[in-house]
Design goal:
ABC transporter involved in vitamin B12 uptake, BtuC, mainly alpha
Length: about 350
């Protein structure tokens, strides 16, 4: 018999399958060669080492954003501040990367600095929520706009290289760039860093007293306070941890995939991280699979747009369906209710 504890995982799998089937159905209507187009979409991302490398490269920042937001969502805090933190922490790391004299410690110093800045920034919405119950979604979105504006000012007037013929910083010192770990791809050592962050977040959430307080506060803040948990403190330290991870993610992405900072807009990892976290059911370890899946379909859509007659915008349909069904609490709820009834009758 299908166990009730696996229901949410089955529900997520069903969402993914439905989204893929819907996308294939649309392809069959808009493409003159639907089977060839479907083959490109599903096979090309794993058809070679370099293509598979593209999937992993794209998944690294998604993992950082996903695990950061999974911590916040587990607290029942819908905070999208990772978007602005990715940008600003990346800029902070870049400002350190263009300097010299740090040797082999250069990337570590830049990444830690970006992480600490991310933690301090994310702490502000956390303190506002803990002290005055300010809506974390509103404050985080406002901070995203502020961080973009401040970041663009610093990029244009403090870090910009006039010889670059674009809005970009001076080139990074070669010592600061993250090393490649798989020949033939651009997969960098940031993959190791993000996997360590994910394992650390999992152990923190499920193996420590602070993680227990996090989960209790997210389930029912009033009951957690009645039980003696200082929920205000929990909200602040979870925001600090989530901000640090997002800051490290922005720094790693900049140092791993770029030779100079050239982001002139927010990178978009706030909503992407939310989608990854929701697919993973706010489980840090499951973020790995969720991020790889999202990166896989994005690379597939990109290859499809280049090698067939279907545009890459197809990916927006897939993501929209996934987000819609994952957030729809009533989806497959009838089956869950039936399982609960059978289990109750069995135990009774």
């Amino acid at each position: 018999m299908f166990k009730l504890k696996y229901f949410e995982w089955f529900r997520t799998l069903a969402v993914v399958v439905i989204a893929l089937l819907l996308s294939l159905l649309i392809i069959s209507f808009v493409s003159e060669q639907p089977w060839h187009t479907m083959f490109i979409f599903l096979y090309e991302p794993i058809s070679s080492l370099s293509h598979a490398g593209n999937v992993v490269e794209m998944a690294i920042p998604l993992m950082f954003a996903g695990v950061s937001l999974a911590l916040l969502f587990k607290m029942n805090m819908f905070n999208l501040g990772a978007e602005g933190i990715f940008y600003f922490s990346g800029l902070v790391a870049a400002s350190i990367a263009i300097r010299s004299g740090l040797g082999f410690l250069h990337p570590a110093v830049a990444i830690i600095a970006g992480g600490l800045v991310g933690a301090l920034i994310m702490a502000i919405p956390g303190i506002l929520k803990a002290k005055w119950n300010a809506n974390e979604l509103v404050t985080s979105l406002m901070f995203n706009s502020i961080l973009l504006g401040v970041g663009l000012y610093l990029l244009n007037y403090k870090l910009r290289d006039a010889a670059a013929f674009q809005t970009a910083s001076f080139k990074f010192n070669p010592d600061a760039v993250l090393s490649r770990i798989i020949p033939g791809t651009r997969i960098h050592s940031g993959l190791i860093i993000v996997l360590l962050c994910i394992v650390g977040a999992h152990l923190f959430m499920y193996k420590t007293k602070w993680g227990y307080e996090l989960r209790m506060t997210g389930s029912n803040r009033e009951f957690a306070e009645y039980s003696g948990i200082k929920t205000g403190r929990v909200i602040v330290y979870v925001h600090l941890l989530a901000g640090f991870i997002a800051g490290v993610g922005g720094s790693v992405e900049v140092l791993g995939m770029h030779t100079r900072f050239d982001w002139t807009s927010l990178p978009g990892y706030g909503m992407d991280g939310a989608l990854v976290a929701m697919l993973a059911k706010n489980n840090p370890l499951a973020v790995i699979g969720s991020a790889l899946f999202l990166a896989y379909i994005r690379v597939g859509a990109d290859m499809m747009s280049r090698l067939s007659d279907v545009p890459a915008e197809m990916i927006s349909i897939i993501q929209g369906v996934i987000l819609l069904l994952v957030s729809a609490e009533q989806f497959l709820k009838f089956w869950k209710n039936r399982m609960l009834l059978k289990e109750a009758q069995k135990n009774g």
